[in-house]
Amino acid sequence: MSPIQFKDYYSVLGVDRGADEKAIQRAFRERARKLHPDVNRDDPSAEEKFKELNEAYDVLSDKEKRQRYDMFGSDWERYQHADTAPNAGPFTSTRRQAPPDGDFEAWFTGDPADGQFEYRERSGRFSEFFDLLFGGQQGGSARSSERGGFRLRRRRGEDLEIVTSVSLREAVTGATRQVSINAPDVCATCNGTGLARGVECPTCDGTGTVTRVKRLEVTIPPGVHTGSRVRVAGQGGPGVGGGPNGDVYLAITVAPDSRFTIKGNNLVTKAKVPMYTAILGGEIEVDTVESRVAMNIPPGTQNGRTFKLRGKGLPNLGSKSGERGDLLVQTEIVVPENLTERERELFTELRNLRQ
Ligand SMILES: [Zn+2]
User: Fold this and answer.
1) How far is the CA of 22 from the centre of ligand 1 (A)?
2) C-alpha 85 – ligand 1 centre gap (Å)
3) Distant-in-sequence, close-in-space partners of 224: CB < 8 Å, separation ≥ 6
């Protein structure tokens, strides 16, 4: 690994170390006009010079970065030696032997072992010197990375969540949903670098990502409850620095069904039983979530008694054997009203028989 070259950003911009924001901006604009690759097509080094100018401006126009750079200045050689120790690979971790000053710790944050290592992109938009100085830095650089700076730290993409309602029947049978999400995607113009031909990418304003409406067909498995989350792996925001994409989650709400109460994997319902059937026994029809089934009523059935229809409840989410809860049926005995004269006579006779 060749030694990293110190870059004098002040001389790149042609300003002195005390230059204020306005002077820096003015110097950048003047030089950018002269060095722009579009007006220097015959000069093969123009692109490189222009890149260097952008890098210098990125640092010196940002208060926090400039401060860090100024602090870094004269001690550069010392840290450069620490970084070019034998066997130094691209993921060199020199933090154990190097910077005595706490502020420099940030350059070397991360450890390959925890997957959060600093990622030095060879083809990155800025120099290795820049990466070393700002690459592993959080906080101050996060803002800059939003407006299109370096995206060096390996990071998982953003997870997205969509709230979806399903009917109770769909909770039992499973369902599919077409969903549209506004998902961040890598900008195709600049391949996520934020730069197009050395200047801020006009398609994504230098952020490296664009928002796209993405349509997904999502399969909702049988057995979901309110609060279940269905994961669609890898369809969320794009990963950064070689990190994996985020996921999309469907947050499920099961719409209430006036006929059924959900108790875990069991369902509870009420069924009307004519008085005669309750007394003499017989069959009634009961609504399940999917259909209507016959249920036996034994003679002498009381009001409010609960019968169990096995396997007519909610599926166990993720069960391969199709296991399901039960449907608990509570009887509601229906007493006949508006009796005829003849019925009154017979009921009176029945009552007299019991007394
Ligand atoms: Zn772009």
Assistant:
1) 27
2) 37
3) 166, 171, 230, 252, 254, 317
How many A from CA of 280 to the centre of ligand 1? 79
**159 CA to centre of ligand 1 in angstroms:** 21
Instruction: Give the pLDDT confidence of 106-116 residue by residue, as tens digits.
Output: 233 333 333 33
User: Which of 86, 159, 89 is CA-nearest to residue 119?
Assistant: 89
Q: Both ends of the chain: CA-CA distance in Å?
A: 107
Give 186 Cα–ligand 1 centroid separation in angstroms: 8
> In terms of C-beta density within 10 A (0-12 exposed, 13-18 middle, 19 or more buried), how is residue 208 classed?
buried
Using CA atoms, how far apart are residues 301 and 255, in angstroms rounded to an integer?
A: 33
- Distance from residue 168's CA to the centre of ligand 1 (Å): 45
Q: Is the Cα dihedral 203, 204, 209, 211 positive or negative?
A: negative
Q: 82-139: per-residue pLDDT in tens?
A: 443 333 333 333 333 333 333 332 233 333 333 332 323 323 456 666 666 665 433 3
- Judged by phi (left if over 0) then psi (alpha if -120 to 50, else beta), residue 245 lies in beta
Contact between residue 128 and residue 157 where contact means Cβ atoms under 8 Å apart: no
C-alpha 210 – ligand 1 centre gap (Å): 7
